[in-house]
Amino acid sequence: MNDLRQRLAQCFLLVFPDLEASLVYSASSSSVAAWDSMAAIILANVIEEEFRVKLDYDVLPELVSFDLILDYLNTEHLKTNHGTS
Amino acid sequence: MQITEALKIIRQYLSVDLPLSQVRLVTGFNPLHLQTFLQAYLQQRLSTRRVVVSTDVFGDMTGALARIHPSLLDMGAIALEWQDLDPRLGFRQLGGWGYKELADIVTDARAMLGTIRESLADLPEGFHLALSLPTLDLPPIFYTPSWQLCEAEISLRQAVDEFAFWASGRPDIRLVGPHRRQIDAISSQVFDLRADLTAGLPYAIDHADKLAQSFARLLVPSLPKKGLITDLDETLWAGIAGEVGPSAVSWDLDSKTQLHGLYQQLLRALSDQGVLIAVASKNDPELVEAVFQRNDIVLPRDLIFPVEAHWNAKSESVTRILETWNVHADSVVFVDDSPSELAEVKAAHPEMECLRFDGQDHANVYSLLFQLRDMFAKQTITHEDTLRRESLRSGSIFREAVRSPIVSQENFLRDAEAKIAFDFTAIKNPRTLELVNKANQFNLNGNRYSEAEWRDSFSGSSAFVVNAIYRDKYGPLGVIAMLAGQVSQTEMTVKTWVMSCRAFGRRIEYQCLKTILDRFSVREITFEFSPTTRNGYMREYLTSFLGKQPDGPFSISRAAFLDKCPTLYHEVEVSHE
Which chain A residues are Cβ-neighbours of B30 within 8 angstroms? Predict the structure, then answer.
């Protein structure tokens, strides 16, 4: 679980280079100015590459915070053991 | 490349203080991933600069083209798709498909291509563009089945082809080729309908990656390799000449050895474009010459220089060939059928590209032919390219004469009937910049320039660019040296000075300095010298003036130069505007 959080945090830091590391776990589209629709797509692609999963584009608009994405990964994908890279 | 890797490459350069390379990417669709990949690939190829790829609003191709400001940009890339020619050729608008629309769509597409062509024609000379033609499949607008080519589709493709033909004739536009390994439009990895509809991203990530790589290769081409050293038995021909005899080795269809003939054919084509071809073979030299005497040889003997055929180690042969050519190992490719020979040469010359020719493996040879073609690919073939082999032969005559204890160097140089033409309008000659970006050993500081940087640096009224065109009784060498710098009434600074290794030993470097001193009547020249790992020949030459090795910029007075300058025998001609 901690490993998953850290890997997801690395994805965030790659897509949002101006984001302070201490704020990653509380990041959301309302707190990160650079988190627009294009950044959301890039973030989704980076997460797909990191966790070797395919995200559902219809769900993307709802994944607006670090915690929500973490929950989504846990419930929708990693439970099927696809998430080890 | 994956997006993660591309972002990491981009991030590495975000906070680095380097000069910027501004690139404009023009698309009619959302360029998101294409932009990311293009920036990453260009950044890899331009490691001394920070690349910034900007985009315009998408959905407005002509507007975006009109808003290209070359004065603020270094280069551009345009990814044209069918939907840019008429929105009905995409999936994001519902303007109508079917036979009733076809004539109108073709007319609109032709008109749009005409508008794009006008926009491109208005761009100033010297602004480099990479252009890709539609890579995606056409939507199902036709009434014929998709496996049938109909008149309307032919008309659309003809319009694009005519546009492409025009663009290919523009010196500053380079077109992405539909290379089978680069762009596979049939692949399901090309188009992403879902991403197109939800975010305006028609390109699948894999396709955006490959197209961006093609753009980067066109905008910042790799330096082509200069020479190829080939083995003979089981490589240039099938069979071992020493075992079956010169008449029984083969390279033809009837003998089922056509792969070797194709290899010879490619080497001949490379030689014709100026690539140096040499042989390194463990062989009996007389048998080798006998094979080359055959009438059916595809790669004639006179296109090869030198031939190293003996029983010593191949790495020794390769070393001698490099000395004869006077080129560095990283500019040369070695081809052999034997893995152990390849390993032996690679161990002695780690920077050399060593490739295997496996005459039993059709896929290997097929791939090798394309690989070699790409390694030696050039944008243009210059006059100097066609002179290279012969000038190397004459260069070796010079070197042998200089080394010979029985031939007087002074007599040899005096009797060479050398003529040098200095051209002070050289900034317009593409060979000048090519020489600057290729020369290593006689290079003042190793500085390389893009075309835009070259223009910006040396087109002012106080700048000068001069090149030297040499010939003697052994043949012409073409443009073999150039100098560029700034000059005022009293001072001159040489910022760039290079000479081809083919011209060494002829005192051309002395004549270069004498000529610019005479032309500008200054008392002193400042050289912006900087040591590199490769410019030892230049350092040695400059040491002869200073009495010590230079380690940075320095000046030489006219008197000091004339004091050290040996007798020059060249007949000199100077031209300027």
Answer: 38
Q: Which residue has the higher pLDDT, A57 or B148?
A: B148
B390 part of a folded domain = no
Q: Residue B53: which CATH number?
A: 3.40.50.1110
The reply to whether residue A46 touches residue B3, judged by beta carbons under 8 angstroms, is: yes
* CB atoms A17 and B8 under 8 Å: no
Q: How far is B25 from chain A (nearest CA, A)?
A: 16
SS (H, E, C) B354-418: EEECCCCCHHHHHHHHHHHHHHCCCCCCCHHHHHHHHHHHHHHHHHHHHHCCCCCHHHHHHCCCC
**Contact check, Cβ <8 Å, A57/B4:** no
Residue pLDDT, tens place only, B515-524: 998 888 888 8
Q: Are residues B264 and B287 in the same domain?
A: yes
- A46 to chain B, any CB pair closer than 8 A? The answer is yes
The answer to whether the beta carbons of residues B473 and B390 sit under 8 Å apart is no
Q: Shortest CB distance from A14 goes to which of B8, B32, B201?
A: B8
Q: Are residues B267 and B357 in the same domain?
A: yes
From chain B, the residues in CB contact with A50 under 8 A are 4
Is B383 within the bounds of a domain?
A: no
CB contact under 8 A, B4 and A17: no
B434 and B505 housed in the same domain: yes
pLDDT at B114: 95
Which CATH number belongs to the domain containing residue B520 in this structure? 3.40.630.30
Given the DSSP bridges, would you call strands B419-423 and B463-472 parallel, antiparallel or unpaired? antiparallel
Chain A CB contacts of B199 under 8 Å are 37, 41, 57
| Pairwise CB contact (< 8 Å): A41 & B36 | no
Cβ within 8 Å, pair A42-B8: no
Condensed to tens digits (0 to 9), the pLDDT of residues A52-79 reads 888 877 788 889 999 999 988 888 766 6
Higher model confidence: residue B142 or residue B260? B260
Cβ burial, residue B145 (10 Å; 0-12/13-18/19+): exposed
Instruction: Give per-residue burial for B196-218: e unless 16+ CB within 10 Å, then b.
Output: beebbbbbbbbbbbbbbbbbbbb
For residue B514, tell me if it sits in a domain: yes
In Å, how far is B251's CA from the nearest CA of chain A? 48
Domain-located, residue A85: no
CA distance A70 to A31: 17
What pLDDT is recorded for position B498? 93
Which tens digit of pLDDT belongs to each residue from B346-399? 999 999 999 999 999 999 999 999 999 999 988 777 777 777 766 776 676 666
pLDDT of residue A80: 57
Q: Is residue A13 part of a domain?
A: yes
Count of domains in chain A?
1
Domain membership of residue B320 as a residue range: 227-375
Q: Any CB–CB contact under 8 A between A49 and chain B?
A: yes
Print the SS3 string covering B201-241. CCECHHHHHHHHHHHHHHHCCCCCCCEEEECCECCCEECCH
Counting DSSP H helices and E strands in chain B, the numbers are: 21, 18
Q: How far apart are CA A33 and CA A20, in angstroms?
A: 13
Q: Which residues form the domain of A36?
A: 2-80
Q: The CATH number of the domain where A64 resides is what?
A: 1.10.1200.10
